[in-house]
Structure formats: structure tokens, C-alpha cells
Amino acid sequence: DDICFEGVESASGAIEDAIKVSGTSLATFSYVANNGPSTAQSFVVSGSKLVDDIHLEAPAGFELSRSVDTGYAPYLALTRTGSDVASTTVYVRLKAGLTKGDYAGTIDVSAISAIGQSIAVAGQVAEDPNALDRPSVSAFIVSETYHNLAGQPLVGQPVTDGLYLVKTVYSDGK
Predict the structure, then answer these.
(1) Are residues 56 and 87 in contact, defined by beta-carbon separation less than 8 angstroms?
(2) What is the mean pLDDT of the chain?
(3) Mean pLDDT of all residues in 59-84
(4) pTM of the entire structure?
(5) What Cα–Cα distance (Å) separates residue 41 from each residue in 13, 15, 56, 62, 114?
(6) Is the pLDDT of residue 48 over 80?
(7) CA distance 85 to 113
(8) Least crowded by CB within 10 Å, which of 4, 67, 148, 165?
(9) What is the pLDDT of residues 148-166, one digit of tens each?
(10) What does residue 133 show for φ and ψ, rounded to 5 degrees?
């Protein structure tokens, strides 16, 4: 039995235009460190004359989902019915927990026997303006003193229930 694919084939035998994406780039993903993920953006993927599902892979720092609110992961598969994948909205976001910096790359959209597509993505995680107020993970307490509400140190007195102020000095050992 011979297998026949309809459509234009490339020199490598892959079918051109079997995978369609709505756009070539998404940018301006952003959030302040410790406040991720970013707001999602979307694009549409469809396919025809396929012998395999469409597979999407996000670059480092990004994640994909078919739902704007849940189910985000670095990989996503769009299941075909027969030889087609119906138009499907794919959501992309800059994932939570990233450190300050710029993030960029391409989302690869591929399927066996089809010429793949890609979408460029770029975003930025800004420095948390409150980060300087927090001790680092490796910080340790150098001293801790207790004061009454008037600001007078409670030296040599047991600290019991009630209101008092605590002054803590941290060091990161550097």
C-alpha cells in the first residue's frame, strides 16, 4: 500500500502550510519579582493534512495552556481529529518564580511530516522594590533586642505577654 500526502512538500518531504499560527511574535510579558506570573497573551494554532498531533514547546521562563487561568506547562499537545487540528487558542505567560531579568526565545510548534512554525516571545521580570527590606535566604540574626512602646530597651527583664517592639539585625555573612 502506498501512502499519499496532499499538499506541497518541501525538499525534506515535510508538508508546507500544514501548521498555521496566527502571528509570529508576542512581547511585553512582564511582572515584578515575587508577583508572577505575567498576564497571559494568546495566539491561534490549527493544522491540516497531519499524520501526528501538533506539539508546542515554550522556551525557558515561559509556559503554555489551552485555558487562560489554569493548566500551564512548558509543553502542550493539540490532538488531531483525522488529519486536522481545529483552530485552538493557546495562552502563553511568563511563569511565576523567576528572578529579575530579561527572558526571550521561541515557541516551537511542530508535528511529524509538517514544516514547523515558531512564535518569538519576550518579557521581563523587574526588581521587587521591597526586596531590600527582606533578609536574604542565607541571612542570619546578629542581634535581637526588645523595647517597650516608649522605645526603651528591655534589658535584663523577662519578655512576657504584652506589646513590645523587636529590633532584629540581620547579616548575610558578606
Answers:
(1) no
(2) 85
(3) 96
(4) 0.70
(5) 33, 28, 15, 11, 25
(6) yes
(7) 14
(8) 4
(9) 777 777 776 666 666 767 7
(10) -85, -10
